[in-house]
């Protein structure tokens, strides 16, 4: 989810880290780029960006997200530790339930966004961004030491595969006898995959993802098994490999944040419209990192607000300036693209609260010309989660 995508020639890719699925990307003619220090496919030959995007909206796309950082936190203080560095009430999270959350610094700024899954009373499975790996690990270690928490922190290797789209459930169901109809959005299970995994081990399957469609994220600690599992899925007619370009446009249509664009250490969860991640008990106790600043913003309502815009003409891009009706600069585009689903431009920005209302007209400076745009409610495209 991090924005740091360097532009390297193929000759430079040898120095990059590889995921377990790297050879699969080459087999399917992936166009490889440097993404957070990993060689990752942005597109596959024979599929345009729009075709890949639309395939996920109609069928099932397989995304390699093994570059993401998978953590396991356990021990008597695991809940206290995670409730210190996030605003989420994890004590109330039921086993095998997940929540989007944010890591916060002492000023209430967002260090990273994350998905946290409770696996039992003292064990949590946490996924963070590859581009934030080094600073996240340093942050987590320093916070544990500073507060004297008794925790065990492990990194999980292997493959992490996202299977997304309306046909994802039917495809995955072919590989397991587990009834996936019992697994709803925001929940997870350890599931047997019919002999595809070494030693017949079960794998952690979460229902959710980063596209707005129904889907799953499957964590397979054994790298060789991750390859077999991915190849088995890609042998199905309904499943195609999908790269970073469509992953980004899909998440943008779903109104989801990208770290380094919508989320930074200067942005708090209130401005990001992530106030719902702040637990009721945490609002009352105010003991999480940056609580003073975050709760002030929540109550005083002084923050800018993340807002969606639609427009015509050239597609807005990150960094384009945004102006109000009087010509005053009021922000800049954090993410923007032509929406393959809506066939119009969609973008996100941060606006003053009085302008962050549906229907407000603003202007985006694109190539030296101010183009009209209108504030709309997020997400741009309705989500299709299995609840």
Automatic annotation (TrEMBL):
Keywords: Aminotransferase, Mitochondrion, Transferase, Transit peptide
Reaction catalysed by this enzyme: N(6)-[(R)-S(8)-aminomethyldihydrolipoyl]-L-lysyl-[protein] + (6S)-5,6,7,8-tetrahydrofolate = N(6)-[(R)-dihydrolipoyl]-L-lysyl-[protein] + (6R)-5,10-methylene-5,6,7,8-tetrahydrofolate + NH4(+)
Cellular component annotations (GO), alphabetically ordered: glycine cleavage complex; mitochondrion
Function according to Swiss-Prot or TrEMBL: The glycine cleavage system catalyzes the degradation of glycine.
Organism: Starmerella bacillaris (Yeast)
Protein known as: Aminomethyltransferase
Residues in GCVT N-terminal domain copies: 21-280
Transmembrane regions: none
EC number: 2.1.2.10
A molecular function GO annotation: transaminase activity
Phylogenetic classification of the source organism: Eukaryota, Fungi, Dikarya, Ascomycota, Saccharomycotina
Record's subunit section: The glycine cleavage system is composed of four proteins: P, T, L and H.
An example Gene Ontology biological process: glycine catabolic process
Superkingdom, taxonomy of origin: Eukaryota
Chain positions recorded as substrate binding sites: 217
């Amino acid at each position: 989810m991090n924005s740091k995508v360097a532009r390297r020639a193929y000759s430079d890719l040898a120095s990059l880290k590889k995921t377990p699925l790297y050879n699969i990307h080459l087999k399917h003619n992936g166009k490889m780029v440097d993404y957070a220090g990993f060689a990752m496919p942005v597109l596959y030959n024979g599929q345009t960006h729009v075709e890949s995007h639309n395939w996920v909206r109609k069928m099932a796309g397989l995304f390699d997200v093994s570059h993401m950082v998978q953590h396991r936190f356990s021990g008597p203080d695991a809940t206290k530790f995670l409730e210190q560095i996030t605003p989420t009430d994890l004590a109330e999270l039921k086993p095998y339930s997940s929540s989007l959350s944010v890591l916060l610094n002492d000023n209430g700024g967002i260090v990273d966004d994350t998905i946290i899954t409770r696996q039992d009373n003292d064990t949590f499975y946490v996924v963070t961004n590859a581009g934030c790996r080094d600073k996240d690990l340093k942050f987590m270690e320093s916070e544990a030491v500073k507060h004297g928490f008794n925790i065990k922190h492990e990194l999980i290797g292997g493959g992490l595969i996202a299977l997304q789209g309306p046909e994802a459930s039917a495809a995955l169901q072919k590989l397991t006898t587990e009834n996936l109809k019992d697994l709803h959005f925001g929940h997870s299970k350890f599931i047997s995959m019919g002999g595809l995994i070494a030693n017949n081990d079960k794998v952690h399957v979460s229902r959710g993802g980063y596209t707005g469609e129904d889907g799953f994220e499957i964590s397979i600690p054994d790298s060789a098994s991750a390859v077999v599992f991915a190849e088995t899925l890609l042998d199905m007619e309904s499943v195609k490999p999908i790269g970073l370009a469509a992953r980004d446009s899909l998440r943008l249509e779903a109104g989801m944040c990208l770290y380094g664009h919508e989320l930074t250490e200067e942005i708090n969860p209130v401005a990001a419209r992530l106030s719902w991640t702040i637990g009721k008990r945490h609002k009352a106790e105010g003991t999480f990192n940056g609580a003073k600043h975050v709760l002030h913003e929540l109550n005083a309502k002084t923050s800018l607000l993340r807002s969606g815009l639609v427009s015509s003409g050239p597609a807005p891009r990150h960094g384009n300036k945004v102006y109000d009706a009087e010509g005053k600069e009021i922000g800049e585009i954090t993410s923007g693209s032509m929406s393959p689903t809506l066939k119009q431009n969609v973008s996100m920005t941060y606006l003053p609260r009085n302008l962050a209302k549906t229907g407000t007209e603003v202007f985006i400076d694109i190539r030296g010309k101010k183009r009209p745009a209108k504030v709309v409610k997020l997400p741009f495209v309705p989500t299709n989660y299995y609840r």
